[in-house]
Design brief:
Helix content is about 30%, strand content about 20%. With about 325 residues, it is α/β, with parallel strands linked by helices. Helix 3 runs parallel beside helix 4. The longest helix has 26 residues.
């Protein structure tokens, strides 16, 4: 069933050439403009006609460069954006959430909530309390520092925040900035600007296709990975592709016995050649990878049929 739903979504995302570039939409401001500066009753140039209510989260922390860049750019595009994100860096926490009986929450400034927990905790708090009684139109998680492609996505707190939203029936987009390599700090931060410019165009595309309905099919989200292009990271991506998640797991762990009951942990980055049509192939070609994802781990119909055949007749 999943593959049947993803094909129309791929057509929706790429049927218009405008989405394949990452330059800002015509008339979009070069820098963040304060919310509410447009004359009453008019939309800022380069924005969608109906502003969206967006819950913005991440796994790098509520004050990280990526989430602040996304906040500024989405707000400048006319949307009503509220940050509900972890108080501290929660990279690699995956889908972990609701593991404690209490949670500390701070409200350091208007439109910003900092939750002392995971991205999933942040989204759960945001949907339950900050947006109580009126769910947001969209949850955006990111932009993350570094890639979340292939097996990296399985353990990503950025992706986990988006999954928490999908579980609650809210459309969600996970966004990351980085190529398939260890990120260069300066170039990656610079590349966050073209990343969020692309994000704004993606949201506008979804909104124009939705015609006041859901931005995405129920239960389907997007995992978006924007490459770092150019030595300084400021160049736009060279197109976009709807992809699937490359099956490889590039991080290889090793454990060395210290002899005292502890083991030293080391991790090696060992990438393999990218599979055709996957997210690694796209970002390695300086393209934005847009991978549709669901909130569950159900297989497609072919794999389900194979497992059913393997287990036919099995009884307790």
């Amino acid at each position: 069933m999943r593959s049947k739903r993803l094909l129309p979504l791929a057509a929706l995302l790429l049927c218009t050439p405008a989405l394949t570039g990452t330059a800002p939409a015509a008339g979009a401001p070069a820098a963040a403009a304060p919310q509410g500066t447009a004359p009453q009753g008019t939309a800022p140039q380069g924005t969608a006609a109906r502003p969206l209510r967006i819950l913005l989260t991440n796994d790098d922390g509520y004050d990280a460069p990526g989430i602040r860049t996304a906040f500024q750019r989405l707000t400048a595009a006319g949307h009503d954006v509220t940050i509900v994100a972890p108080l501290t860096n929660q990279s690699g926490t995956g889908t972990k959430m609701l593991s404690g009986t209490t949670v500390t929450v701070r409200h350091p400034e208007p439109k910003v909530w900092a939750v002392d927990g995971t991205p999933g905790d942040s989204v759960a708090f945001g949907l339950s309390e900050v947006f109580e009684g009126a769910a947001p139109d969209l949850v955006v998680s990111g932009t993350n520092f570094g890639p979340n492609v292939a097996g990296l996505a399985n353990h990503s707190g950025t992706v986990g925040g988006a999954i928490a939203a999908l579980e609650s029936g809210v459309p969600a987009i996970a966004v990351s900035t980085g190529g398939f390599a260890a990120p260069d700090p300066v170039a990656t931060v610079n590349a966050m600007r073209p990343t969020v410019d692309f994000l704004v165009k993606l949201v506008e595309r979804l909104q124009s296709q939705a015609k006041s309905g859901r931005l995405l099919p129920l239960g389907i989200g997007l995992n978006v990975n924007h490459p770092v292009v150019g030595a300084d990271g400021k160049s736009p991506a060279q197109g976009a592709a709807v992809t699937h998640q490359d099956p490889q797991a590039p991080l290889v762990p090793d454990f060395t016995d210290s002899g005292d009951g502890t083991w030293k942990v080391s991790v090696t980055f060992a990438p393999r050649p990218p599979v055709k049509g996957g997210d690694v192939e796209a970002v390695s070609a300086s393209k934005v990878a847009i991978s549709p994802m669901s909130a569950d781990w159900n297989t497609g119909p072919a794999d389900f049929a194979k497992v059913s055949a393997l287990l036919a007749g099995l009884r307790p």
